[in-house]
Design brief:
Blueprint: H1 3-8, H2 20-34, E1 43-50, E2 54-60, H3 61-66, E3 75-80, E4 90-99, H4 104-117, H5 124-130, E5 132-145, E6 153-156, E7 168-171, H6 175-183, E8 191-197, E9 215-219, E10 227-231, H7 238-252, E11 259-265, H8 282-285, E12 290-294, E13 304-305, H9 314-327, H10 333-339, H11 356-375, H12 382-385, H13 407-414, H14 423-439, H15 457-466, H16 490-500, E14 504-508, H17 514-537, E15 545-550, H18 567-574, E16 580-586, H19 594-598, E17 602-605, H20 611-620, H21 628-633, E18 639-643, E19 651-655
Parallel strand pairs: 10-16, 10-17, 11-14, 11-15, 12-13, 12-14, 15-16
Antiparallel strand pairs: 1-2, 1-7, 2-5, 3-4, 3-7, 4-5, 5-6, 8-9, 8-19, 17-18, 18-19
Amino acid sequence: MNNKASNFFNKAEHQDNPLRALVDFLKAEESNESAQNYDKMRFVGYVLDIGFDQATIITCDPFKQAVGGVPRGSFLIMAPANFNGMPPHFSLLRVSATAPTPLSREVQQTYFELHKKSMPELDVWTKGELQWGALSTKVLGMFFPDKDDSDKVQFSGDVNNVVSAHRYKVFSPNMEILDIIINSMVRPENRFPIGNLRVTECSLPFANITQPDLEVNVSTDDFKGFRTAMFGKTRLGKSNVVKIIAQSLIETTEDDKSVGQLIFDINGEYANDNPQDNNMSLRSANKERCCVYALTKRPDTDSQPLRLNFYEQPDSTISILKSMLERDNRGSMYITNFANVELPGINNISSMSDDISKQRRSIRKIQMYWAILHKAGYPANENKLKKIGLKGSGYHSPNNFDPAYNKDFRQAVFNEDFRPNNLNELVNYFETIERFRVDDPNNAIFTSSSGKPVFDADDLFLLGFLVPKQGSGASVISAYREFHDPLADNFAKSILKHLDNGSTVILDLGNAADVIRQYFSDLLSKEVFRHQEQKFTANKLGNHYIQLYFEEAHNLFPRDNKDLTGVYSRFAKEGAKFHIGMVYSTQSPSTISKELLAQTENFFVAHMSSQDEANALAKLQVQYDGLQHDILHTRTPGYMRILTFSHRFVVPVQINKFEAVNKP
């Protein structure tokens, strides 16, 4: 160790630089070597071969035993024997595999002869020869003083030069240097411990030497406005990490309420306590900052109802009814026909102005659907329905309840010029039409002036469900009225207000069908995006963020990249600009849109059982290349390999268990 590196710290501006620990470390190594205190040294070996990306080091059993082992995946530091006037610095290596030495074949031959002869003892010379081996390592980058801030360390993903191998020494870092490696890059603001460094799944200490117990820190600023992925098999800790992140964002924004969070809770584990596991929910621990919207009210959880307005979202809710009917094995043909009808969205009516016939037919389908809902007992706000945008350029009627068939049609069916003006009259109107059609299906009034049938297949399916030849008809869907509320459109506005106030909103979707989860995910995601986009345009974003949490993301996000205008693709491309962050969990990276994956900054990866999935991750994020074997073979719950926006390389971590404390 030369004095020039020490002199670097004699300048006042460098007194507090963390790399002072490196100089002290190398001095201690020299002292222990001089005193022959080899058991106290952290020296691992010498460099046999070095390149810009890889380095091969030679080591021996006593060196490895003194540092408690050098397992695959462990971090080593490589420092020059002489800094030659340069500031102190070191290169970071990660052990990837064993490597052959120049004498490997001779050593194997010696082993063969020894075992063949069953020799119980080895002479000193042979024992020394056989204890040497080599390790292949990956060069991750270099740590050196930040030239713009004397109190900081800087990291580069490459090295500035490579000199002859004999000029380097390799060490296992002590606690102070390990802290520099793991935590020095993390933003100092809003830090919190996510877990402890854990290089191997095997917890048995080597040579009875305990490995350093180092906390791994992350910053909540790395999640606000960023995309975070949780990958791995179920029951291995993905939800636990989500709770820790959400809890930390609540705690670090206690004063300014600068982050609102929306959690799509598909299993009810964030909203509801689990006494069996002695687990307090996120809501219970943060009652003043959390509110719950639930499809089904739970007795011990305060919540507001989460409902749909079936009248105002015909295109989405008929799919939900289809899912419910299929789940309940409602298999009659007229029910199956109804469930397969596709309805237009009300907001799409005005865009059909270039095709008047299509516009009129679309409006009538929605009105038939309204009649079915009303007959099934779904309450409605009729005054509001009269005002929503059904009327198009091809629609000539005084109100939204009039299908506006021509006068000859009305006269033939009703023997008068009858126009319905409310939902009761609309039900009677379509029932009368259907009975007339069944009695006289070939009547000329059912053919338009252009020669096309007045009713297409979907019309007939809707009318056949309203007035079935046999069966319960519309009453079949009465059982699903619990999901409907004529004022349901207000819940989105209420949730956005909570988010703007820095609250954490939990949507309890436990036991809901996939189509209902999809509906609420799509609806609220679009509302959040629109809301933040409007604030951005008005220059009102400020320092406020909205964080979204999605579980079983493969059921929500489109896998292909064909629709780049969808809300999830827009989250990926524009979310940061609009202060929208998202955390999504799934078992398999390959099930998620590549557009979203390519824009993801933070990764938490637990055990995967598919080699294809591990390789897909490595192709997506190069920092995971070389770690596939460990991901495939380690499956301890909570044991993850993480990469955050602050970190420049993957860190193996045993994640802390979420243990919230109830706050009054």
